[in-house]
Amino acid sequence: MHARISRPEFGNITKVTQTPPWWQSAVFYQIYPRSFADSDADGIGDLGGVRDKMGYLELLGVDALWLCPVMRSPQADGGYDVADPRDIDALFGGLAAMDALVAEAHERDIKVTMDLVPNHTSVEHPWFVAALNAAPGSPERARYYFRDGRGANGVEPPNNWPSIFGGPAWTRVTEADGTPGQWYLHIFAPEQPDLNWTNPEVGADFEKTLRFWLDRGIDGFRIDVAHGMAKPDGLPDMASVETKMLVHDDDDPRFNNPGVHEIHRKLRRVFDDYPHAVSIGEVWVDDNARFGEYVRPDELHLAFNFRLAETPFEAEAVRSAIDNSLDAVANVGAPPTWTLSNHDIEREVTRYGGGKVGVARARAMMMVELALPGAVFIYNGAELGLPNVDDLPESALRDPVWERSGHTERGRDGCRVPLPWEGKTPPFGFTTGEPWLPIPAEWADRTVEAQLETLHSTLSLYRLAIDLRARRHEFSGDHIEWYGSPTGALAFRRPGGLICVLNTADEPIHLPPGNLLLASAPLVDDRLPADAAAWLV
User: Fold this and answer.
1) Start and end of every Glycosyl hydrolase family 13 catalytic domain (predicted)?
2) By the 8 A CB rule, do 467 and 74 touch?
3) Is the N or C terminus of the chain more exposed, i.e. has fewer CB atoms within 10 Å?
């Protein structure tokens, strides 16, 4: 017995005969440039390093790259504090390095998407510098959220909002005459002042940025904090003052305000002038109906759904996350998205228990996500089975969360440690200098070099799984059918004929009828072992 879950066609709700867009079922590979590969020996990864490894990316078989921010930035938050959105920072090689990378990627039939940050700028952005030098009420300050403080002489912030990184979301400035002045809003770090999207200059400048990169051959963008640009009228106090990074909280007035959708509709009109390009939103919204609004036909093409990345390795929880993710986009006819980790999230190997068990479960979950309809996002290093590095020396920590939390939260550096490429000792070919974060010596058996030479390595499994997904007709169809399965397991079927089975139980299970296409671990007496997944046709 099985239950059928029907899904409408992806794209427009009305069916039309056309070639599906490339991004509808693409495998995206997320590159955190600082940690991928260093080409100039300064210990920090750069675009030249990415270009040097393009052969590896082609070998891996991915369809597209997503580059985390490489625009000009003082790097207060890993590049998410942008000083010039239409230039590439010298740290990463400058604009010529980006042009060369895009050209080479396209020669290898790999698309290139990049991060854009519309919610805020750097304090070094010319607009904010001008705002600091201007008077209260000036046009320069109207591009941001400058407000008078509360209390006697304005000594209290304008409202009670906290920063995502800890502390208040407001910083007071010193006016030109040396007196304490207004406060400015920064939902993230003080070095990241929020833009005021009700000011038409903001949208016009962002459109200019979009066209600048699209005209240079960029194939699309991941839109940072895509649910955050619109703020509520009057900036009212929060009923409950607490904050955490990366959570679904639909009652948080800092995010998911209705005005954000008109912003995305304006951006979509730009994208419609570039039919090849894709817009991908970072959207932390809990309610499925509200999540789906972001991927209506006139807004974003795709939106990140993080359910799988938040789900424990338990069959029922995984099934619920899959159903939830499919339901979130079903009514608007958009493709679902799947990811297990990124630059902000603890790596899946660690989340699933670490060690051999964590690797086994991560391998299994990779096969689950690649078996699902929609777009898949792989974070660099996941294909190597890398864990988080949670014992970095305190002196090495770079994430602003560490300082803003008063050294009580270590932040996200543990999932951003540079990749190991070759050799037996750190820095494993990542750089010929001193890496910006130390690389564990015990990663010697997880280098690209070591795993390419091992048939059953995690890297080899990724390569084979991505290749099968691209070539086999059994992966076709835009919905899944659930099958009955033993307790602690799940199984679903794609319309093309692929069957995916996941075993989260403690004992091996019998597989449904079919020919084994791939398994994340060797079968035991023709049964699927614990912490494993299999594909059948």
Assistant:
1) 30-416
2) no
3) N
Using left for φ > 0, alpha for ψ between -120 and 50, and beta otherwise, residue 106 falls in alpha
Token pair for residue 467? 């290749």
The answer to whether the pTM exceeds 0.85 is yes
Per-residue burial over 488-512, b = 16 or more CB atoms within 10 Å of its CB, e = otherwise:
bbbbbbbbeebbbbbbbbeebbebe
Both tokens of 306, joined, read 């993080």
Asked whether 104 and 96 are in contact (CB, 8 A), the reply is no
Whole-Å CA distances, 440 to 91, 385, 443? 24, 14, 6
Give the closest residue to 55 by CA, choosing from 35, 37, 75, 78.
37
Owner of token pair 């190597």: 384
Burial status of residue 323 (CB atoms within 10 A of its CB: 0-12, 13-18, 19 or more): middle
Question: 362 by DSSP, 3-state: which?
Answer: helix
What CA–CA distances, in Å, run from 348 to 229, 304, 310, 342, 365? 30, 17, 10, 9, 9
CB atoms closer than 10 angstroms to residue 5: 15
* Catalytically annotated residues: 224, 282
pLDDT in tens, 153-171: 999 999 999 999 888 999 9
Q: How do residues 408-467 score in pLDDT, each as one tens digit?
A: 788 899 999 999 999 999 999 999 999 999 999 999 999 999 999 899 999 999 999 999
Q: CA-CA distance, 20 to 197, in Å (whole number)?
A: 33
Taking the mean position of all CA atoms in its chain, how far away is CA 498? Answer: 27
Residue 146 is inside which H or E element, if any?
Answer: strand 146-147
